[in-house]
Amino acid sequence: MTAQPRARTLEELRREAASCTACDLYARATQTVFGEGPEHAEVMLVGEQPGDREDKQGHPFVGPAGRILDEALALAGIARDRVYLTNAVKHFKWREKGKRRIHEAPSVAEIRACKPWLDAEVAAVDPRVIVPMGATAVRAVIGPGFKVTEHRGEPLDLPDGRRAVATVHPSSVVRIEDSAQRSLELHRLAGDLAVAARLVGA
Known about the structure:
The protein has 202 residues and is of the alpha/beta class. It has eight helices and seven strands; from the N terminus they run H-E-H-H-E-E-E-H-E-H-H-E-E-H-H. It has helices at residues 10-17, 52-57, 64-76, 108-125, 135-141, 148-151, 170-174, 179-199; strands at residues 43-47, 83-87, 94-97, 100-103, 129-132, 155-157, 163-165.
């Protein structure tokens, strides 16, 4: 089963998505975490799914990965309030580990079930450039054959006339323990975001 959005504006879509049951993830999630940002942002950033903090607060990229993303955006000279932030999957998928809720990657079926919401967001925002971050987002935006490790930061023409610039998910930077390596990867992420900014003349 896939979602079937009927609304057209972002606010209508957000309200409609709040009751989505297209896959089983809604049953264990606190709430649907829909995208946020300017209605006609030129750049849309797409992550994987909400994390524990996002699930509780109801906003995208407010946890540790969000802090890394904020740093990368600042390094790239991009104001967060000028981009639209969303995820390929709108519910938090997790497993218990002691008292913690540990992230689990969405399945292909779950990505597919949620794809109509992402498509509806793209139609409503009408961005010029989409930045899928990580393998899940790349699968949803570009397709399953694209390798982020081989083509990150490279502008790609999408079938609908938009452009995409794929990069890693900020959470991959969070997990790096070595501070020098983490700084290097943060700057690489910022470089990829800067490519997207240049494509829109920002």
